[in-house]
C-alpha cells in the first residue's frame, strides 16, 4: 500500500517573496494615508499645535544626572546669583554717574529751550552747521554767477519767488516774523509712532503750548526719575508744569533673581490737572436713554466718560504694592506700555529732540537692522567680473581630501 503523498512545501524563495509583497503593501498604504493626512488643513494644524507644545520641554537630562553633578550645578547657580548682584552694583554706579553729569546736560538743554522759545537768538557761530538747504542755496548762487550779467537779476528774483512759494507764502505779502521754533514738541510727538498714537486732534492745540520736557533724576529713595512737561500759560489748565514720576528698582527680585535684566520701572505716579471750565479733553459727555421698568417711560441722561487723550498719560493706573500682588491683564498691559513710553522719552526723545523733530532719528532707527545687508539684493555676474578667478577658491593640493 503506497503512502499518502504530502503536498509539496513552498520554496523558501517563494515565501520570502510573498512576505516582501505584503510589506510593500503596508508601506504603500501608510504612504497613501500619510499623503491624505498632510493634505488635511485641520490635521496639519493639530500636528503643529502638538509640536509647539513640546518645544522647550525638559528632556530629562538634568534630572538624570548623578547627585554629585547636581551638587556642582547648585554651586554654579550660587555663583550666578553673585554675578547678578555685581551687575546690580554696576547699574547703581551708572545711576551715580548720571547724577554727576546731569548738570552738564541741563546747561545744554536750557540753551535749547531758550532758542525754542525765542528767548535768545543763536549767533552765526552757533549756527555754523552744514545742512542740505545751504547746499541748494550754493547751487543757486553758482547758477546766478554763470548766467549773463543782463540775466543775473532775473535769476535772483526768480529764486526769491520760488523760496516764497515753497514756504507757502504769498509773493505779494510780506512774511510775518516767526519766533523760536513753533510746535517743536508737538511735531516730535506726531513723528514718533509710539507717541502719535496717544495724541488726539483735540490735544494738538494744547501741545502747541508745550515749551520743554525735562528729566529729573532722583538721588534719594525711592530712586527713579521724573518727567517735567513745561507749558506756557494757556486757556486749558492752570498749571504750567505737569509731572510724571517713575520709581525704579536696581536690585534683583529676591523671589526671582535669575530674571534680572537690569534696572526696571516698578511704579509710576501722575499729577492732577486743574482744567478750566469746558476745556477738559480727557472726558466727554454722552447721552444715554433709560427706560423705567414699571411705567415704561424713557428718559435721556447725560453721562461723563473717559475720552482718548494724550493727557491721560498723567493719570496712569495704580500699580499694586508688592511682588506677589495680582494684576489683571488689562492693567498689566497699560502699565507695561506706560513704562515703555516713559523710558523712551527719558532715554531717546529728550536727549535727541532736534533729530526727532527733523525725522533723522527715526530714519536711523529704521535703517539699524539693514545696515549689514548692503548689496545682498544685487545680482552677481561672475563672467563679467575681471577679478573673478575660479581657481582661487579651490583647496591647495596638500589640503585636498585623499
From TrEMBL:
GO BP: any one term: nucleosome assembly
Organism this protein belongs to: Elysia chlorotica
Listed Pro residues bias regions: 1-10
Ranges of compositional bias, category Basic and acidic residues: 154-174
Chain spans, region Disordered: 1-34, 121-174, 362-402
Lineage: superkingdom: Eukaryota
Record's GO cellular component terms: nucleus
InterPro entries per the UniProt record, alphabetical: NAP-like_sf, NAP_family
Organism lineage: Eukaryota, Metazoa, Spiralia, Lophotrochozoa, Mollusca
Localization annotation: Nucleus
Family: Belongs to the nucleosome assembly protein (NAP) family.
Protein name: Nucleosome assembly protein 1-like 1
Compositionally biased tracts (Acidic residues): 13-27, 123-141, 362-386
Keywords for this protein: Nucleus
Amino acid at each position: 500500500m503506497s503512502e499518502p503523498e504530502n503536498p509539496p512545501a513552498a520554496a523558501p524563495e517563494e515565501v520570502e517573496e510573498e512576505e516582501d509583497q505584503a510589506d510593500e503593501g503596508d508601506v504603500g498604504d501608510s504612504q497613501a494615508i500619510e499623503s491624505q493626512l498632510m493634505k488635511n488643513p485641520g490635521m496639519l494644524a493639530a500636528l503643529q499645535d502638538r509640536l509647539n507644545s513640546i518645544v522647550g520641554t525638559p528632556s530629562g537630562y538634568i534630572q538624570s544626572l548623578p547627585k554629585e553633578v547636581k551638587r556642582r550645578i547648585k554651586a554654579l547657580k550660587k555663583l550666578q546669583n553673585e554675578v547678578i548682584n555685581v551687575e546690580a552694583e554696576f547699574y547703581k554706579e551708572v545711576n551715580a554717574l548720571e547724577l554727576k553729569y546731569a548738570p552738564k546736560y541741563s546747561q545744554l538743554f536750557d540753551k535749547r529751550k531758550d532758542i525754542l522759545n525765542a528767548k535768545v537768538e543763536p549767533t552765526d557761530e552757533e549756527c555754523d552747521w552744514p545742512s542740505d538747504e545751504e547746499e541748494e542755496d550754493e547751487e543757486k548762487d553758482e547758477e546766478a554767477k554763470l548766467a549773463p550779467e543782463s540775466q543775473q537779476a532775473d535769476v535772483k528774483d526768480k529764486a526769491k519767488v520760488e523760496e516764497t512759494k515753497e514756504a507757502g507764502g504769498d509773493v505779494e505779502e510780506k512774511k510775518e516774523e516767526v519766533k523760536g521754533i513753533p510746535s517743536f514738541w508737538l511735531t516730535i510727538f506726531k513723528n514718533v509712532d509710539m507717541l502719535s498714537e496717544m495724541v488726539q486732534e483735540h490735544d494738538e492745540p494744547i501741545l502747541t503750548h508745550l515749551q520743554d520736557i525735562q528729566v529729573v533724576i532722583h538721588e534719594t529713595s525711592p530712586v527713579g526719575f521724573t518727567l517735567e512737561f513745561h507749558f506756557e500759560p494757556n486757556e486749558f489748565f492752570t498749571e504750567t508744569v505737569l509731572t510724571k514720576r517713575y520709581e525704579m528698582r536696581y536690585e534683583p527680585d529676591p523671589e526671582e533673581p535669575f530674571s534680572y535684566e537690569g534696572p526696571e520701572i516698578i511704579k509710576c505716579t501722575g499729577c492732577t490737572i486743574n482744567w478750566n471750565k469746558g476745556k477738559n479733553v480727557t472726558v466727554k459727555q454722552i447721552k444715554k436713554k433709560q427706560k423705567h421698568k414699571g411705567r415704561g417711560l424713557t428718559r435721556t441722561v447725560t453721562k461723563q466718560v473717559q475720552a482718548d487723550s494724550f493727557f491721560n498719560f498723567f493719570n496712569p493706573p495704580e500699580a499694586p504694592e508688592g511682588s506677589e500682588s495680582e494684576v489683571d491683564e488689562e492693567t498689566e498691559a497699560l502699565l507695561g506700555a506706560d513704562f515703555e513710553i516713559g523710558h523712551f522719552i527719558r532715554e531717546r526723545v529728550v536727549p535727541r529732540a532736534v533729530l526727532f523733530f527733523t525725522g533723522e532719528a527715526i530714519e536711523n532707527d529704521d535703517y539699524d537692522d539693514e545696515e549689514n545687508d548692503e548689496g545682498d539684493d544685487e545680482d552677481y555676474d561672475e563672467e563679467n567680473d575681471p577679478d573673478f578667478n575660479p581657481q582661487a577658491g579651490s583647496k591647495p593640493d596638500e589640503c585636498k581630501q585623499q
